[in-house]
Amino acid sequence: MKINRQLVLDKYNSRCAYCGDYINLKSMQVDHLIPQRDNLRYTKEEIHCFDNLIPACRSCNNYKSGNSLE
To answer: What would the pLDDT profile of 36-63 be if each residue is shown by its tens digit?
Structure first.
């Protein structure tokens, strides 16, 4: 599945979904709100759907790692 990174960034008005800092397309990382490792409870289509993709800055994405928000 090809991800349109610009659309993911636009969902949060060029801000990190976690800390709210402005990010640009080059520095943005696409994160999965429901972690990819949750593949026993969710289908591949659910995990990789556009609604589950969010923009994150590098530090927030590294801090969250493969965990859920909880």
So the answer is: 887 788 888 898 899 999 999 999 998 8
Q: How far apart (Å, rounded) are the C-alpha atoms in residues 54 and 11?
A: 8
- How far is Cα 13 from Cα 33, in angstroms, rounded to an integer? 17
Separation CA 3–CA 49 (nearest Å): 9
Say how far apart CA 44 and CA 9 lie, in whole Å.
22
What mean pLDDT do residues 7-28 have? Answer: 96
The pTM for the full model equals 0.83
Alpha helices in 1-70 (DSSP H): 5-11, 44-47, 58-64
Number of neighbouring beta carbons within 10 Å of residue 31: 21
Q: Positive or negative CA dihedral for 38, 40, 42, 47?
A: positive
Local structure of residue 50 (DSSP, 8 states): G
